[in-house]
Design goal:
Helices cover about 30% and strands about 20% of the residues. The protein is an alpha/beta fold and about 350 residues long. The chain has two domains: about 25-145, Immunoglobulin-like (Sandwich); about 150-360, Protein tyrosine phosphatase superfamily (Protein-Tyrosine Phosphatase, Chain A), CATH 3.90.190.10. The strands form three sheets. Strands 2, 4, 5, 7, 8 and 9 form a six-stranded mixed beta sheet that branches. Strand 7 (about 120-130) and strand 8 (about 135) form a beta hairpin. Helix 5 (about 270-285) crosses helix 8 (about 335-345). Mean pLDDT is about 95; it is low at about 1-20.
């Protein structure tokens, strides 16, 4: 008798729930589906990445900043008659939803900006009725492995080196090293985006002193930012022994964890910046074709395409020969070759281990 009463009580609760609103199972993910993949890039960049072949930028570039991020839209449906007054949606990189961002909507979708790439995100809907709430299950989505781009006022060609799959199945940490064009025109909105949102601590300026604001003693981002100005070699200038000491100085900036997050740039964020990005991504074991694609992203920006040169020209005369030079060091993999190059210019094995420890997750 007692068991029958308990069963009847449970049935009554379930029936009441059915009459007054959705049950947990009736909150259903729509886009993306549970476990589905989604791109945080705009349509142009998503297509560029998905169909990438070298030189593809020539068919689509328009000499503006084309690769601003789009964020993601998460949508669900209620498989029940009574809809909630509104819903809270929690989105997190943690499966327990810890440290998640909370959104509120009267509809069945939310838009999420500043999304990490190549990352599992977890989300849950809390439907709020007049007299009760219903929690959905915890759903999972995965963002595509694409460049994580940023929209920063007064600055062009800005993207994260993080998010790429690296050696041993690890990933390059996001939000740690960001590349781009000069910040000479920085205003209050620029500083808010770079200091408050991205947390930039170091401005690594690869220009020669006197080029724009380079060498002025402090960063346009503010006097509290660690300003490092090193006149950098570019492309096959890495072979020049007289310039290798300067390049070693650049690399050593990345051996000090206190310097992070680091923003590094030259004038337009393509050539000296691209040379350093090539070496860093190569050292971390990012796939070579991904490195080529990351370089070519500059041609989809205003500053990176301003001189009207083509990606094919730069591949043939500059970037490609630099890759070939790095491959000449006799290593088993591209990462081995880059490591041997760095050892040859005075970077120590311990410094290389430190960079990998800081930047690989």
């Amino acid at each position: 008798m007692k068991k029958r009463l308990i069963a009847a009580g449970i049935a009554a609760v379930i029936l009441a729930g059915a009459l007054t609103g959705c049950e947990k199972r009736q909150i259903v993910p729509v886009s993306p589906s549970d476990g589905g993949r989604i791109s945080a890039s705009n349509a142009t960049v998503a297509r560029f990445c998905a169909e990438y072949t070298r030189g593809a930028s020539e068919k689509i570039k328009d000499y503006t900043d084309m690769y601003y991020p789009a964020g993601i839209d998460i949508a669900w449906r209620f498989d029940c008659d009574e809809l909630p007054l509104y819903s809270f949606v929690t989105v997190s990189t943690r499966s327990d939803l810890g440290e998640g961002e909370k959104y509120v909507t009267a509809g069945t979708s939310v838009h999420v900006d500043d999304v990490p790439v190549n990352t599992d995100l977890y989300w849950q809907v809390e439907a709020v009725y007049a007299d009760h709430t219903v929690l959905s299950g915890i759903f999972r989505l995965r963002t595509a492995e694409e460049p994580r781009t940023y929209e920063i006022p007064k600055v062009s060609n800005t993207r994260d080196l993080g998010g790429y799959t690296a050696a041993g199945g690890k990933k390059v940490a996001q939000g740690m090293i960001i590349r781009g064009a000069n910040v000479d025109g920085a205003n209050a909105e620029t500083r808010r985006a770079m200091l408050d949102e991205l947390g930039i601590k170091t401005d690594l300026d690869l220009r020669a002193p006197g080029e724009g604001t380079a060498g002025g003693g402090s960063s346009p981002l503010g006097k509290d930012v660690n300003y490092v100005n090193i006149s950098a070699p570019l492309y096959t200038g890495l072979r020049d022994e007289e310039k290798q000491a300067a390049f070693a100085e650049e690399i050593r900036v990345f051996t000090d964890e206190a310097n992070y997050p680091i923003y590094f740039h030259c004038a337009i964020g393509r050539d000296r910046t691209g040379t350093l990005a090539l070496v860093l991504l190569g050292l971390l074991g990012v796939a070579e074709e991904t490195i080529w694609r990351d370089y070519e992203m500059s041609f989809l920006s205003q500053s990176g395409s301003a001189d009207k040169v083509t990606a094919e020209l730069m591949f043939g005369s500059n970037f490609g020969p630099t890759v070939d030079y790095l491959k000449s060091f006799g290593g088993r993999t591209f990462a081995d070759n880059v490591e041997r190059f760095l050892l040859s210019i005075g970077i120590t094995g311990d410094e290389i281990k430190t960079i990998r420890k800081i930047l690989l997750r």
